Amino acid sequence: MGKRVALVLAGCGVFDGSEIHEASAALVHLSRGGAEVKIFAPNIEQRDVVNHLKGSPAEERRNVLVESARLARGDIQDLAELKASEFDAVIFPGGFGVAKNLCSWAVDGKNCTVNEHVRSTLQAFHSAKKPIGLCCISPVLAAKVFPGCEVTVGQDKNVDGRFPDAETASAIAELGCKHVCKNVNESHVDKANKIVTTCAFMCKAPLHEIFDGIGTMVQEVLKLA
């Protein structure tokens, strides 16, 4: 019987929601791994709405759950309804929505607050010793909720201009966590906390390399589940 995995989204679109390619990659790899997936998102208003064509703010309001339903093809539930006892693992794709809607990292950095349902979900899986998979910017959620954990967001220096957000690694270290440098096609496993992370679009890399890196994360999560 396949593993039961919860996938948590933060909207739809890289600049104000979940990164679509990351969410899709995670779903493809989970499908290939024989997992049974249920998708969730918090029923809250987005911090902002971005016109993805212009890259500028739009004067409108959108709901994270409603927007995430686009990616879930309508088959989605309110994150408040997620019960860790019903799943073997949880995975969070990245995108600015994680840093804007699931927490306030985009505004407050390491001093951010984490959405109550996101925090309780992470804590429930961690307490049950069930694996947590995170990619791109979403490892900051683990760094904020689990001081002392190990994560990767890629490199801690902007190597060859490929890691423009390398300072995130320093902020993670300032939270008392260990940042482990990894390439885009790799993931890091914190065995003690059962947290698996990969950098995805935190690295400027070809899409297939990002896809492969997310694949290693999903594989490790399923092994731990």
TrEMBL record:
PANTHER family: ES1 PROTEIN HOMOLOG, MITOCHONDRIAL, GLUTAMINE AMIDOTRANSFERASE LIKE CLASS 1 DOMAIN CONTAINING 3A-LIKE1-RELATED. It comes from Anhinga anhinga. This is GAL3A protein. It comes from the Eukaryota. InterPro entries: Class_I_gatase-like. Coiled coil: none annotated. Transmembrane segments: none annotated.
